[in-house]
C-alpha cells in the first residue's frame, strides 16, 4: 500500500490518501453488491473489494444486516444438517458432550440450533467493545459502526466457508453410518462436527485480520510501521479472546436450553 500526501499549505495537516498497489488489485467480479448472493460471491472471489465496501461510511448500515443474514442462514443450514446426522446414529455413537441431553425430540434440536446461531453471533457482540478499544489503542481512526461491519464481515466469511465444508463432512458421516462404523469412530467424527464452525472460523478471522491491517493507512506516516505491527498483534490478541469466548457461549446456551 502506497500513500500520496497532499498539502494545501504549510500550516495544514497533510492528508493521507490510500493508493492500491498493483498486487492489491483483483480481477473484476461481476456481482451485485446490494444482494445477498452478490455479497456472498464477493466474499469468496474478491475479498479486497469487500474490504473497500466495509470502509465506506455510506454502505456500513446496509452491509451489517446483510452480513448478519448470510451468517444466520448458513449457521442454520449447518445446524439442521448436523441435527439430522445426530438423529441418524445410535445413542452409543453420540458425542459425549451431547449424549446426556440428546433425544429424538424437538427441544434438543431447537436448543442446538439456537446455541450455534445465537452463540456464534452473541460471542461477536460480547467481544466488539474490546475490538473497538484495541483499534483506538493502536491509533486507527475508526468508528464503532465500522468495527461492527468488519466483525460481521468476518462472521459472514466464516459462514460461507462452513457451507462449503458441510457437504464433504455430511458425506463422510453418512459413509460411516452406511458401512456401520464402530460407535467410537462415529463419536470422534461427530465431535469434529461440533468444532467445524471453529475450523471454518479461521477463514473469518483471516478476513478480519486482513481488513484491519488495511486500516493502517489511516496512521501517521512517521509511525506507521511501528503502529501497524502493534495493530497486527492486537488483532491476533482479539482473535484469541474471541476463540476462547465462543465455545463457552455455545456450550452455556446449549446446557441452559436443552436442560
Q: Can you describe this structure?
A:
There is one protein chain. The protein has nine helices and two strands; from the N terminus they run ββααααααααα. The chain has 259 residues and is mainly alpha-helical. It has helices at residues 36-45, 47-54, 60-87, 96-99, 106-138, 144-178, 183-194, 196-214, 224-258, and strands spanning 2-6, 15-19. The longest helix is centred in the middle third of the chain and has 35 residues, at 144-178. Helix 3 (60-87) runs antiparallel to helix 5, helix 3 runs parallel beside helix 6 and helix 6 packs antiparallel against helix 7. A two-stranded antiparallel sheet has the order 1-2. A hairpin with an 8-residue loop joins strand 1 (2-6) and strand 2 (15-19).
Helix content: over 70%
**Class computed from helices, strands and strand pairing:** mainly alpha
Ends apart, CA distance between termini: 52 Å
Number of helices: 9
Number of strands: 2
Strand order in the sheet with the most strands: 1-2
- The sequence of SSEs as H and E is EEHHHHHHHHH
Low-confidence stretches: 1-24
* Inertia-based shape: elongated
The largest sheet is:
2 strands, antiparallel
Overall mean confidence score, pLDDT: 81
Beta-strand proportion: under 5%
Radius of gyration: 21 Å
